[in-house]
Amino acid sequence: MAENKFTQSVETLILGMLIGVIAFLMLGYTEGLFYDKNIVRWLPEIQEEEFVRTENGMMKLSGIPEVRTELKIPDYEKNQVFIKRIMEEKIEDKWVVTRTDELWANFSLHGIEVFPEYSKQYFELEEKYVKESDVDRQTMYGIDAETPLIVVGTAVNGEMMDGNIFAISNLDNTKLETELKSMVHNDWWFFKLFAWLLLSIGIVAFLLPMLAFLEILPELGLWGILTFIGGCIGVAFLLVAIETLVFAYWFLIFLILGFMLYLFIRINIKKKKKPINILPN
Predict the structure, then answer these.
(1) End-to-end CA distance of the chain
(2) Exposed/middle/buried for 59, CB within 10 Å: 0-12, 13-18, 19+?
(3) Which region among 59-63, 166-170, 250-254 has the lowest average model confidence (pLDDT)?
(4) Helix (H), strand (E) at residue 112
(5) Rounded distance, CA 170 to CA 178, Å?
(6) How far apart are alpha carbons 116 and 79 in whole angstroms?
(7) Residues 144, 125: Cα–Cα separation, whole Å
(8) Residue range 246-259: average pLDDT?
(9) Residue 101 confidence (pLDDT)
(10) 133, exposed or middle or buried, with CB in 10 Å at 0-12, 13-18, 19+?
């Protein structure tokens, strides 16, 4: 019986540790969201072919794409760089989406060949074609080939197909930053709160078996157990808050530590230079 109780306690301890690790990984992911948003904000817009085509690294290209293939919408004259086609069927007097296709033309921007299939799109799309019958409907949205685009990604040997963030947008730079900020803000809060919940569960799962194994739980009573759980939630909140502050103000922490080190050195130097009284009293 005692051996079984010990085994259960160890299993719960390990589970609590794993949940805690997952929570901290999620906290790291939330900070990565802000990093991705800041990449778009910090990178300068390259609006002309002002660099060597073989230059590598993270870039934010801006301008009218050089479209080399024909991509057309029925009954619409202009060539497209991107088309979104939505197929719907009428089921019980309601339109239900049955298929969505995204079509890209081959294009480059300032000499960099862009492979957009795995990109994240931030588009303002215009409805350009609708074909509807009693049972089905086809709607097509598109972006004209002469529409200025912003492409953010990593260029390698004149090609761009991925990166820490790989995004294509027909918004201007200010609108794109605002759109990213809004999306990141909502995701940031969701993952922070979820990480707080996981961390709270992990701390409880880590400590509770210790109390049970030491047979302290019966002495705590209901209110004692609730207070213990509330304390675990408070500790989890404190850890999340510290992590957030460290990531947000890491440079201030280094400045404070540097200033404290400077004061420590100055104080020790003054102590060493203190004159010694050798005269007899």
Answers:
(1) 77
(2) buried
(3) 250-254
(4) strand 112-114
(5) 13
(6) 17
(7) 10
(8) 72
(9) 93
(10) exposed
